[in-house]
Fold these 3 entries.
Entry 1:
Amino acid sequence: MDWQVWSEFFRQNWLIILVALIILFMVINLVKTVIKWLIVIIIVVAVFIYSGISMDQIRDTVSGVTGQTVAALQEQAMDVMKDEAKSARFIQNGDGTYTIKTETVELKGTPGAGKVGVTFRGVPLGEWEINSTIRSLIDQAKQNTAAGASF
């Protein structure tokens, strides 16, 4: 979040925000029903619309933050894959798929497919293309399992 943007927003719209807050407190104190919360939501949305912030901008901001978070998790998961490859286990599932497990990473895939499902610390990160790091983890897990290695 860019604090300069918020600071400028508050500087330009301080009077509108103050009026909206006063109305909100009056509504919250006077109205004791579900209608109260509808009025509160309408006032908050009206302030955002008046300020020029569109839902597209909010959505873009949320998407940007989400994208950055996923990218950071992917990078961290790749680093962990490299570090934990020596303890990885290869499990051949009954349905023809396989599972690779380390202490914090789990890969699920189908032999010959170009993608695997990745779970990092219990959080599913979606399907990833098999790159050199993932290929290396799969190969190391097969070697570990053949040699009888475990956690």
Entry 2:
Amino acid sequence: MTQTIDTTETAGFRRNLTVLILAQSLGAASGPIVISLGGLVGQDLATDPALATLPVSIYNLGLALGTVPAAWIM
């Protein structure tokens, strides 16, 4: 008895896998992009250069403070 592989099922699997890989890579890239570009954009928008990285600092602080409650929920 031979087993046949449905080509539409294989094509659907490959498409889903490709979409999931792209979504995961773009999602994982958002944090470093926010951190690296946040200072540059802040420098352009801030009137005081000392405040240029304040939004990025608050982002990192919020991320660090949110880690413990997220771990408790999990």
Entry 3:
Amino acid sequence: MYYVNQEQIERRLNAIPEVADGLRTVQASWDNGLIAGMVQERALHLAIEIVTDVGSYLIDGFIMRDASSYEDIIDIVHQENVFPKEIHEVLLELVKLRKPLVQEYYEWDRHALHPLSRVLPETLEQFAVAVRDYLAKEL
């Protein structure tokens, strides 16, 4: 029997609506300003942390192969059929932003709306549904 920390997964999935709302608000009122840019930056960062944390909990709980990178977390969870290809493509693009956001933040363009900000809210919501469906099916 697997031990999947459903409580911690759910806590992270429950953060998705606020992140999605933040991205939708920023997109709808984009003004190229610093504050909007910083809200977008933080929302993207939180989205990365949510999907990689949830992926790591799934990998550990279901004893999937070990991940070697953030991209690998997304690939492994996708290969285990937690979510479909469309979500995989967006999340893979998302996690590639971690290094620029966290390590090279001084170069991040805070005055441009990132293309992921348009599609990510819906993708995150679909991710949450897919993860919950996977857990219901597997447990």
